[in-house]
Write a structure and sequence with these properties.
The complex is a heterodimer of chains A (about 500) and B (about 200). With about 500 residues, chain A is of the alpha+beta class. Chain A has helices at about 1-10, 15-40, 70-75, 135-145, 260-270, 335-355, 370-380, 425-440, 480-500, 500-505, and strands at about 45-50, 55-65, 65-70, 80-85, 90-95, 100-105, 110, 115, 125, 130, 150, 155-160, 165-170, 180, 190-195, 195-200, 215, 225-230, 230-240, 245-250, 255-260, 295, 315-320, 360, 385-390, 395-400, 445-450, 465-470. Chain A folds into 3 domains: about 45-160, Copper Amine Oxidase, Chain A, domain 1 (2-Layer Sandwich), CATH 3.30.457.10; about 165-245, no CATH class; about 280-505, Zn-dependent exopeptidases (Aminopeptidase). Helix content of chain A is about 25%, strand content about 30%. Classes of the chains: A alpha+beta (about 500), B alpha+beta (about 200). The interface of A and B includes residues 10, 336, 391, 454 and 458 of A.
Chain lengths: ~500, ~200
């Protein structure tokens, strides 16, 4: 015992004590760091993102015995009928008609009476069966009867043939653009930083292209890289100029273009997408359907109203809020920003069904400032601007026109004061609101028409209204009802179509 | 060679650090699980001394989404600025009541009202007022209209109103009603007429 103490405490040689002191210091440092992390709660919780045709969901991954584990019952629950029975040390799970049997501490289980390798020990905590994450690729097909692909590093699990693939190419006619084509609609969050534009796909089963680095031979957009991390896929585009993302084909195509080029295209009516973009059509008589587009950019704009530019879109539909701005929390799970974007897509469809070319601002979960919204509405020279809001209080629909603020500044020549730019269009806005209100009343929808201090209505130089949709009953979740959205969207589109001649005649 | 007493001292210190960390961890958990500290809504100014006067308060009703003019008798001081503050505090008292028709967050208060000639009123509300305000175009609009109408109806000569939060300009009240500019009282009067009609 004594000799051991000497050895540990360094009473033997000259050089040994320092080394041991250092190693003791390192151990103490590690201990302190660990304690500090515990105290601060800084250890991030890892999640598994599950993509399937039944549901997309996320589950927490737990660390046990140096391995990553997942709750099997919780994983199977959204996919079908599932029940579990705990008889320690045994644990049984029924998924539809498939029986799985596991024993605590065993590295194998049985599924439908056949042996299943777990690549680690089965664990049970409070009646909850935990299987190693690494086993899911082989274990799940036994339960589901179909393929399951696990990306263990990034925490992504694909059940069935659910993956969304994409290609990226630079059009030969315009090498400053980069076009992404996806096999299913996508709705990434878009973020920019100097020299980069990053699209993060948190909810879509986007998978890697053939190579994780794509090069395009373009001076403007030299390359894009694909990566996966923490349950999301990310595409980072390197560029030498600020880029803007446009969505089309119902979210199946994303076009990245230099900001100036995109703005100019929107202003002059030049098609910026490869497919269904129509030639500019006369307002009010358009019978072609415009390719829906969205712009999600962060460049601070300057108002440049002009009355001599061809009109490409007759209507601009603006899904209010987005990104960090969630709007009203309509329920514990429903944010206003999600209702408005769903509603905007439906309204665009209804307007286009009536031959009204429509631009949807914010077709993704992007943060767009109110000044940017007014800027895009003004530069497209649309005949009508419709901002969409949702609320949990009250019933039916409230229609708003601008309440202009007190302004000490006047219009100067062709330049209009930004905060009261709407003033000359107020009669048209009120006419549009009255027309939409009449159509809503025809559908027996409760409707009120009010003025409101609601930006950016006051900065839009064309007819501008805001539509605030409240649920038909007391349940805010009814706002997401397809039937209710269809009813309102159809009536709003009818109201705009009814006075398209009046709106289209405006400069 | 490490002296024994030094080793013991370091060990004790490490144990103390570990113990304190665990204690802090537990306290943090308790704080998170415990009830949130309620805002102290007790009045911090003495009750107003002055003659009781008949005033008109424009009170918002969430259930019907309308604004109603209501008469009330409240003591008002003689100084115009203090009268403005008391008017709005009386209005807020209605909203902070248990049976409020348009609930405002607990602790909501009007910090000051500044009357600047010619015809400008600056209403400075506290952070609790805006931070906890219900979001929604109509809900926020009712609050704004209620404040401005109550002020302008009882203090003639106000043409413009600016609303500040904790002395600073704010873009919106709770995500919708624009507070960045000056409200034109004449325009707000028209808006309030619409709100009063309930149509």
């Amino acid at each position: 015992m004594r000799s051991t103490r000497k050895e540990i405490f360094g009473h033997s040689t000259r050089g040994q004590p320092i080394r041991r002191w250092r190693s003791g210091g390192a151990a103490a440092g590690t201990l302190l760091l660990f304690v500090g992390l515990l105290a601060s709660g800084a250890v991030p919780e890892k999640h598994l993102a599950v993509y399937s045709t039944a549901a997309n969901y996320s589950l927490p991954i737990v660390q046990r015995q140096g391995h990553e584990y997942i709750g099997l019952l919780e994983l199977l629950d959204p996919l079908g009928m599932v029940s579990a029975k705990s008889e320690p040390p045994r644990w049984r799970v029924h998924y539809n008609n498939v029986l799985g049997e596991f024993t605590v501490g065993h590295t194998h289980g049985r599924v439908q009476g056949r042996d299943a390798d777990l690549a680690g020990k089965f664990l049970m905590e409070n009646g909850r069966g935990l299987v190693p994450l690494a086993s899911l690729g082989s274990l799940l097909p036994r339960f589901l009867g179909g393929p399951a692909t696990l990306h263990a590093e990034s925490g992504r699990l694909f059940i069935g043939s659910i993956a969304t693939h994409f290609t990226a190419s630079v059009p030969s006619e315009d090498p400053s653009h980069l076009v992404f084509r996806f096999t299913a609609p996508v709705n990434p969050s878009v973020a920019t930083e100097p020299g980069k534009l990053r699209m993060t796909f948190s909810h879509e089963p986007v998978t890697a292209p053939a190579s994780s680095t794509l090069t395009f031979g373009s001076k403007t957009i030299p390359e894009a890289t694909y990566s996966e991390t923490d349950g999301a896929a990310q595409v980072t585009v390197t560029s030498t100029v600020p880029l803007i993302a446009s969505f089309s084909r119902d979210g199946r195509t994303i076009t990245l273009a230099p900001v100036k080029s995109q703005t100019a295209a929107a202003t002059t009516g030049t098609p910026v997408t490869e497919a269904a973009a129509p030639a500019p059509s006369a307002p009010g008589t358009a019978n072609t359907v415009a390719s829906p587009q969205n712009t999600a950019a962060t460049q601070p704009p300057a108002p440049k109203p002009s009355s001599s530019v061809a009109r490409r879109y007759f209507a601009v539909v603006d899904a209010s809020h987005g990104g960090n701005d969630r709007g009203e929390a309509l329920s514990s799970t429903l944010a206003e920003k999600d209702v408005t974007v769903a509603f905007a897509r439906r309204l665009r469809q209804e307007l286009e069904n009536r031959g009204i070319s429509t631009l949807v601002l914010r077709d993704s979960d992007a943060t767009v400032s109110v000044d940017d919204r007014a800027f895009y509405a003004n530069t497209t020279h649309a005949a009508v601007y419709v901002a969409l809001h949702a609320a949990s209080n009250g019933h039916g629909v409230r229609l708003y026109t601008a309440l202009l603020p007190y302004s000490g500044e006047d219009d100067r020549g062709p330049f209009r004061a930004w905060t009261t730019a709407q003033s000359s269009s107020m009669p048209l806005s009120q006419a549009a609101a009255a027309s939409v209100a009449a159509e809503l009343k025809k559908q027996q929808v409760t409707v009120r028409t009010l003025a409101a201090p609601l930006r950016p209505l006051n900065s839009v130089v064309t007819a501008a209204i805001a539509v605030e949709v409240a649920p038909p009953g007391s349940d805010a979740s009814q706002l997401m009802s397809p039937d209710y959205q269809q009813l309102i969207a159809s009536a709003v589109a009818n109201g705009i179509a009814d006075i398209r001649a009046q709106l289209g005649a405006a400069p | 060679m490490i002296p024994r007493h030094l080793f013991i001292a370091i060990s004790v210190l490490l144990l103390a650090v570990l113990g304190m960390s665990l204690y802090a961890w537990r306290m943090r958990g308790r704080a998170a699980a415990g009830p949130a500290v309620s805002v102290d809504s007790r009045p911090v100014v003495p009750p107003v001394a002055g003659a009781t006067e008949q005033v008109t308060l424009f009170v918002a009703y969430d259930d019907t989404g309308v604004l109603h003019a209501q008469s009330a008798s409240i003591p008002l001081p003689s100084v115009r600025q203090q009268r403005a503050e008391e008017l709005l505090r009386s209005l807020l008292a209605v909203y902070l009541d248990k049976a409020s028709p348009h609930p405002l967050p607990q602790g909501s208060d009007v910090r000051s009202v500044y009357l600047v000639d010619p015809g400008l009123a600056v209403i400075d509300v506290n952070a609790a007022f805006a931070d906890g305000h219900r979001s929604g175009v109509l809900s926020e609009e009712l609050t704004v209209a209620s404040l401005i109408e109550t002020l302008s109806a009882n203090l003639p000569g106000i043409l413009r109103v600016k609303i500040l939060v904790e002395g600073k300009q704010r873009d919106t009240l709770a995500g919708h009603a624009d507070l960045s500019g000056f409200f034109d009282v004449a325009a707000v009067n028209q808006m309030s007429t619409q709100l009063e009609s309930g149509q």
